[in-house]
Amino acid sequence: MDESKSLKNVVAMDGTQYNATVVSKVLISPDHMMIKIDPDEARNEFEAGQHTQLGLYGFEKRSSSSEPETIPAEEDKLIKRLYSIVSEKNDTRQFEFYITQVKSGQLTSRLFNLNSGDRLYIGTSITGSFRLDETPDGTDIVMVATGTGIAPYISFLRSHIVERPESKMVVIHGGSNHWDLGYFGELLNLQKNYPNFFYVPTLIDPVDHWDGYTFCIEDLLKNDVLQNQFNISPDPERTRFYVSGKPEMVSRVSEWLYDFGYTKHKQSDPGEMYVEEF
Ligand SMILES: Cc1cc2nc3c(=O)[nH]c(=O)nc-3n(C[C@H](O)[C@H](O)[C@H](O)COP(=O)(O)OP(=O)(O)OC[C@H]3O[C@@H](n4cnc5c(N)ncnc54)[C@H](O)[C@@H]3O)c2cc1C
To answer: Which of 26, 174, 206, 267 could form a disulfide with 217 if both were Cys (CB 3.0 to 4.6 A apart)?
Structure first.
C-alpha cells in the first residue's frame, strides 16, 4: 500500500471526495444505527477510543424520518462530523460506528439514508486522547456513558479486555429506553466470559418490562453502587473514570468526581478522569 496516497484527501472520478463504501447498516431503532464502512485504502493504526470524520455532500438525500434542518446545508459542501470508532484497534480496513440520528441535523439525516454499497467520505486521520492505553495496569476502570457515548468503550473492550485481567472494568450505560442500550448483547456476553468485567445498564423511562436500574447515572453513582456492588472506590490513585455522552451528564458526573480529587485528563496535563462530550 502506498501510505502517502492513503493519507491525503483525493478527488474521485465523480468529482467528490468520497473514499469509502458502506458495507452494512443495522438499524436498532429508527434513530440508532450501527454502520460498517470500508475505506478504499486501509488507515494507519489507531488507539481504541479514538475518532475520525465521516462526511456526505449537501446534495445527498435526507432520511424520510428527518425534520427540516436547523441550518440548511449547502449543496456542494462536504458536511463532516466526528464519530468515535467502535472497532477493535487493529481493524484498519473496516470501521464500525454507532450513530444517533439528529432529525434536524445536517449529516446524520443523510447518513441514515445510506444503504450498503453507497459511497461516503471517511477521514484520513484518526485522532483523540480518549484512550485506555495510558491507564496503568492493575488500575480499576469505570466507563460511564449515555447513548452513543458507549462507542469508544466497545473499542476499549474489544481491544484490551484480554490484556487486563488484574483490573476490574465496569460499564455504566444510561438511556431512556431499551433501544438506547446499543451493544447490550455484546456487553452481557463479556460479563459472562470475563470475571473482572461488570455491565450496569440503567433506564430512566422504560416502556417495556425492565428488571435493571432505573436511576439516572449520577444518582446511581451517588448511591454508592460501585462501592457496594463491586468494591470499587472513586479514588484517583486506584480507579480511572471515563465519561462519555450528553454534556449535562458529563458535567454532573465530573462535578461528583472533582469532590474525590479527580482532575480532567488532557494530553498536556494528565489526569485520572477522561471526558468526551457529544
Ligand atoms: C469526539 C466526538 C465523537 C463523537 N462520536 C459520536 C458517535 O460515536 N456517535 C454519534 O452519534 N455522534 C457522535 N458525535 C457527534 C457528531 O459529531 C455530530 O455532532 C452529531 O452526529 C450531529 O451531527 P449532525 O450534522 O446531524 O447535526 P448538526 O447539523 O451538527 O446539528 C443540528 C442541530 O442539532 C443539535 N445537535 C447536535 N447533536 C445533537 C445531539 N446529539 N442531540 C441533540 N441535538 C443535537 C445542534 O446543536 C444543532 O442545533 C461525536 C462528537 C465528537 C465531538
So the answer is: 174
